[in-house]
Amino acid sequence: MTVAVKNGLRGQILDESARLFIEHGFNGTTINDIAASLGVTRTNIYYYFKDKKEILEELTGDIFMTGRMIAKKAAEPRADPVLALRELVEIFARVVLSNPVRYRVIERNEGYLGPELKVKVAAAKKKVFNDFRSVIQEGIGAGAFRPVDAGSAALAIIGMCSWAAWWYHPDPKRPIDGLIQFFVDFVLNALVPAGGRRRSRLDARGIIENVRNELAFLEKALS
Amino acid sequence: MTVAVKNGLRGQILDESARLFIEHGFNGTTINDIAASLGVTRTNIYYYFKDKKEILEELTGDIFMTGRMIAKKAAEPRADPVLALRELVEIFARVVLSNPVRYRVIERNEGYLGPELKVKVAAAKKKVFNDFRSVIQEGIGAGAFRPVDAGSAALAIIGMCSWAAWWYHPDPKRPIDGLIQFFVDFVLNALVPAGGRRRSRLDARGIIENVRNELAFLEKALS
To answer: How confident is the model at residue B186 (pLDDT cuts 50, 70, 90)?
Structure first.
């Protein structure tokens, strides 16, 4: 899956601006700084972007793309909520890890977006949250996930993946596919009940037995 | 557990400055803004703080406090890695949720810290990471946790909790204790192998939680 086309000067301007906006803030970065940092002229920059604000606004694109990809996947009919959640986590983690700097720049400089775009970014984020929550809620209803608070679980997952933008630096020795699978595995183990892939919603006997075992263990621990 | 004393004007200045630094950035906030926002005079502010930078530096205090609390806990001898990780998650989540705005301000304005403090903040964060990783690694060695990459697990946990600073707003209808327990439950389920609680002799709370979850599941199945 290709997440972002970064080739060419246009992509380099976006990446370098993101880096500078994070390091020096949006206000602390000029078009001159961006040009100097890339070893090009201001004119080269103005060929692609009207001004600094347009660069920042373009950088919010990843948020909307993620939102669309997640929404598309969440809207598909699904037989298996575990598989559906796996796919949402894969999409989200891949966007963050594919371009951590771009992902971070929004969080750091949201205040400088125009009011209209600010509202759109907030709506896109809210939609991603709602999509995660719905899939988790559905999985709980189907007995595929433990009965946790679906909203908190959605926020935990989004937080876990988003934070990677703060610590992951692209590194061939640490390919993103391994990390994506780590996130998927972490999330599914957190939500799927022990032995739960086999458990149907009607397995009352299994539950009673599990509770009995847990109580017996507790009794033993206390004596 | 008391995490931060926030009473008095001094605490109010810190909280209001944090809010303004996040909203308008450190450069976009003046001592006048802080005074006006609190309905006090500049002199009132200068009674407590030499300048704006001193306020920001004071706000990094939470990072160091968290670091010390985590380090103290991680250095204690432990019979049970599950219990030890539970306690680390509790401490960390409580600091973030007790004052989400203060926690966020550092991430947003780190660039404005003096070089010396910047190095110290980075070291404190690194220490927290190392402490989480060690406890997880030890738990894997003892067979209490699944054999995951301990470093990735530490980052996932820190990210999940840290991100709460972006979405949690203090709300009596959503007390932090419930969220802290949600995080603990999410993390332990992610890491403890299915049926693995039987290996941990001291985790009575985990057992109670498991029983409660099972009963909730059963109730849901029956309705």
So the answer is: very high
CB atoms within 10 A of CB B199: 15
The predicted complex's ipTM stands at: 0.79
One domain for residues B79 and B180: yes
Pairwise CA distance, residues A7 & A98, whole Å: 14
Do the chains contact at B24 and A111, CB–CB below 8 Å?
Answer: yes
- Contacts for B69-76: CB closer than 8 Å, 24+ residues apart: B69/B95, B70/B127, B70/B128, B70/B131, B70/B132, B71/B127, B71/B128, B71/B131, B73/B131, B74/B131, B74/B132, B74/B134, B74/B135
CATH number of the domain residue B145 falls in: 1.10.357.10
- The reply to whether residue B160 touches residue A159, judged by beta carbons under 8 angstroms, is yes
Domain identity same for B9 and B111: no
- Same domain? A75 vs A38: no
Q: What size, in residues, is chain A?
A: 223
Q: Are B203 and B83 in contact (CB under 8 A)?
A: yes
Q: Do A207 and B201 touch (CB under 8 A)?
A: no
> Does the pLDDT of residue A152 top 60, yes or no?
yes
Please state the pTM of the whole predicted model. Answer: 0.80
Tokens of A199: 């458990």
Q: Which of A37, A59, A81 is where one domain is finished?
A: A59
How many C-beta atoms lie closer than 10 Å to residue A67's C-beta? 20
Chain B residue closest in CA terms to A20:
B111
A–B CB contacts, 8 A cutoff, strictly below: 137
Task: For residue A36, give its domain range.
Answer: 1-59
Q: How many domains does chain B have?
A: 2
Residues of B in contact with A147 (CB under 8 A): 213, 216-217, 220
Closest CB from B204, B217, B220 relative to A218: B204
